[in-house]
Every structure is written in structure tokens, then in C-alpha cells.
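Good morning C.,

I know you're traveling, so I'll keep this short. The sequence:
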Amino acid sequence: MKNLFSVQDKVIVITGAAGVLGTSMVHHFAEQGAKVVILDRNEEAGRRLEEEVKAEGGKVMFLYTDVLDKQVLEGNYTEIMARYGRIDVLINGAGGNMAGATIAPDKTIFDLDIEAVRKVVDLNLFGIILPTMTFTRAMIEQKQGSIINISSESAIRPLTRVAGYGVAKAAVTNFTKYMCGELATKYGDGLRVNAIAPGFFITEQNRTLLLNPDGSYTERSKTILAHTPYGRFGEPSELLGTLQWLASDASKFVSGTMTVIDGGFDAFSI
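The C-alpha cells, ready to paste straight into the viewer:
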């Protein structure tokens, strides 16, 4: 019987791959027999991850990228196609937030740094649009491929403080649905576009917001966990099953969706 969830020998390109969540994805898909392309602007972390995966017997290559620079992305595309000749899956994992695009407890909307908000929107939205425009060309030629965008819990409901990031991720969700129709109606039913919406995971970007220097939870963390039925933060490995499904043939008739992975946060009320 065919394993519908297999990603053996699929070429999987991951942007933002050297971060906490991306690293988990890279190790997982390499262990599953995929050929993984690590794209990140942190060359040191990317090279280190590449060596780790190679030492484990995985098929992997690292390329420096800038998801906001079309010329750099085009160079990445050329190198990937020269090495593998195809791209089966694109995971748009690059993104992030910055202090100026948030509203501190003692501040208001009038204190937002508009340039910071603009940078956050650029990174999280255009940092998905540009790679999609670049790497989808291979999928169109193949008449087959899966794009997986990383959205966020903040795209579903506004969260206090994260003004710019929430707006950007909401746009990512809308873009996912738009691209579902755009690709399928013009290029065929072999092209799929979906998103996942992680809830709260501790990463390098939010560590100081969620954890005190001694490792204990901040007040922000306590508020989050009080609204999470599971009563804990997610582990990076808990994203992998959904990603495997969306990357594999098991989801061939699934497109334009957003899967929430949040320990029940979005479903919970009082």
C-alpha cells in the first residue's frame, strides 16, 4: 500500500529555516528522506544546521537569502534548479516582529513606530509573496507542488500589543486563500497553497517576552497559559505532523486552508 504521507526525495525549500521552528522542520524532513534546502539570512546558523543534517545522513543544502530581495531569491532559484531540477514544496517560514511595532502596556496606538510597523509588514507579507513568486515557477512547470505559509494565532484574533505583526499575518492568511484560486484555476489542480497558524511557541524572538531571566514565566506567559486549555506552550515538533500532511500527497485535495496548532487557545472562552 502506498504511503500517502511520504515525502521521500521531494525537494523542500524552507525560508527562515535556521530559526527555532525552521530548524525542527529541516531535521524532520531530512529524516523523512526529503532533499531540504535551507534558506536563511543568518549564514553562520544556516551553515551549522547544514553540517548537522549532513552528519546525520540527510540530503541538504544551505543558501544565503534575503526574502525581500528578488535578485537574491532568483539566484537561489537558479542554484536549487541546477542541483535538483525541481521544487516540490515551499515552506514560507521567514518572519518576525520588532519592538517598535508593538504597543507596550503603558502606551497607546498613537505611540506606534510606523516605520517599524512597515518593516514588520514587509518581512511577514512581502517575505512570503516574493519567494512564492520566485519558486512557484518550478511547480507550474511540473504541474505539481505544495506551498505552506506560516501564519499565526494573531491572524485569527487580535492579540494585545502585537499590532503590526497581527495585521501582517492576517494578510498572509488572505494571500494564502487568494493564491489557492489563482494557481489552481490558471495552472491546474496539482498546485496547492495552505497555511498553518501556530499558537504560542517559545522562540529566540519572544523568549524575553515569555520567560524571565531565571526561566520562570512572565506575567504575559501566565495570561497566555490561562487561556490555553492545554496549559502549556507548544513544542516545535508539534508542528511537524501537520506540515508532513500538507507537504505530502495525503492532502492532494486540500488548498486554501489554515490549520490552527495552538493547544486549544483559539477555541477557549469563559
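Safe travels,
E.
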